[in-house]
Amino acid sequence: MAAYILRRILLMIPTLLGIMLISFVIVQFAPGGPVERVLAQLQGQNTGAMSRVTGGGGDLGGSAAASRGGGGESQSRYRGAQGLDPAFIQRLEQQYGFDKPAPERFLKMLWDYVRFDFGKSYFRDVSVLQLIGEKLPVSITLGLWMTLLSYAISIPLGIRKAVRDGSAFDVWTSAVVIVGYAIPGFLFAILLIVLFAGGSFFQVFPLRGLTSEGWSQFSTWHKVTDYLWHITLPITAMALGAFATATLLTKNSFLDEIRRQYVLTARMKGLSERQVLYGHVFRNAMLIVVAGFPGAFIGAFFSGALLIETIFSLDGLGLLSFESIVNRDYPVVFANLYIFSLVGLVVNLISDLTYSWIDPRIDFETRAA
User: Fold this and answer.
1) What SS3 class is residue 69?
2) Which residue among 69, 117, 258, 278 has the highest number of C-beta atoms inside a 10 angstrom radius?
3) Burial (0-12, 13-18, 19+ Cβ within 10 Å), 14
4) Does domain 129-326 have CATH number 1.10.3720.10?
5) CA 143/CA 138 separation, integer angstroms
6) Which of 76-80, 224-228, 267-271 is the most confident on average?
7) Spatial distance between the Cα atoms of 292 and 83, rounded to a whole number of angstroms
8) What is the pLDDT of residues 246-289, one digit of tens each?
9) How confident is the model at residue 53 (pLDDT cuts 50, 70, 90)?
10) Where do the structural domains in the chain lie, given as residue ranges?
């Protein structure tokens, strides 16, 4: 097993390198960039998500005003650079590191990322790691609670559906599961707001943030209830699709095991259905479900939360990544990509190891050989 783990870790290096290289090349051909956005801002053309970023380019306005009246061939590649001194544009390129060739910038980025040095955001005067750290509580909350809630519902429901396969209970719950899977999470979130957050009917739950104002002054019990009160709607909206997927996965896994020969043998020995189900079937059937828990958590943690964060005004990693892409804040974009990719690769390895831990009969090292 140690040799298998070592091989997987070594394979992470070219995988990460390929992900970062492809993304870097795409960015080189993408229109716009941080220099272009600052120039547009200085020319009064700033629109979109850029207006939400604070601290960006504030000290550049005076420099640009003092540099007006110039012109030149070096400005021709930047739209909105008319009337700005080429020396100012050159200083702007140096500030963002675009005065160096693309290969040199890519190699420097890799060297910095190996040391987990992600630099500072272009448009927020703060380090990238600090910025990501500020958003982590929201993403952890959404990912963890959504995964726990979906598993807590889907595993018992999936087992029940497998045991009563073909019954009326199985049919109507399947209809509910399919409808739940078909409804996008953001659409369900809007429905919840309309019904329970003052949209048109009831004002039961808050619409913004994870806690109320003055939360730090609350008693312990009040803190817990206030926190749960705030996360009820976004977690419910996010768990809908995941709950449906996990339910069908659990049901199908149990059905496969129930039809095996060892289950028939256990019944012939006189064991009760409960003993057969939880003493023999459960461990084998739950293999694929439990082993997929790390991946399900990371998937909820890093993806699928953008629209939910936007709708409920939750400032998490999903919203940060989106705004960074729109604003061409490349240090934040590439840092998120690097961290997400690295964590995803590690979680895939953990999932494989979880399979082996749950069922020692699975030996990935033997298969690899």
Assistant:
1) coil
2) 258
3) exposed
4) yes
5) 9
6) 224-228
7) 57
8) 888 888 888 888 888 888 888 888 888 788 888 778 777 777 77
9) very low
10) 34-99, 129-326
SS3 per-residue string spanning the chain? CHHHHHHHHHHHHHHHHHHHHHHHHHHHHCCCCHHHHHHHHHCCCCCHHHHHCCCCCCCHHHHHHHHECCCCHHHCCCCCCCCECHHHHHHHHHHHCCCCCHHHHHHHHHHHHHCCCCCECCCCCCEHHHHHHHHHHHHHHHHHHHHHHHHHHHHHHHHHHHHCCCCHHHHHHHHHHHHHHHCCHHHHHHHHHHHHECCCCCECCCCCCCCCCCHHHCCHHHHHHHHHHHHHHHHHHHHHHHHHHHHHHHHHHHHHHHCCHHHHHHHHCCCCHHHHHHHHHHHHHHHHHHHCHHHHHHHHHHCCCHHHHHHCCCCCHHHHHHHHHHCCCHHHHHHHHHHHHHHHHHHHHHHHHHHHHHCCCCCHHHHHC
Residue type, 298: I
Q: How far apart, in Å, are the Cα atoms of 276 and each of 159, 170, 285?
A: 13, 20, 12
Residue count of the chain, please give it.
369
Q: Name the pTM for this structure.
A: 0.71
Q: Cα–Cα distance between 67 and 60 in angstroms, integer? A: 10
Q: Give the list of residues 6+ apart from residue 119 with CB closer than 8 angstroms, or none.
A: 112, 127, 128, 331
Task: List C-alpha distances in Å: 295 to 46, 282, 300, 301, 305.
Answer: 39, 21, 9, 10, 15
Name the token pair of 303: 């993806």
Asked if residue 69 has pLDDT above 50, the reply is no
Question: Vertex 136, ends 130 and 140: CA angle to 5°?
Answer: 165
Long-range pairs for 80-89 at CB < 8 Å and ≥24 separation? Answer: 80/36, 80/39, 80/40, 80/42, 80/43, 80/45, 81/39, 84/39, 84/42, 88/63, 88/64, 89/35, 89/39
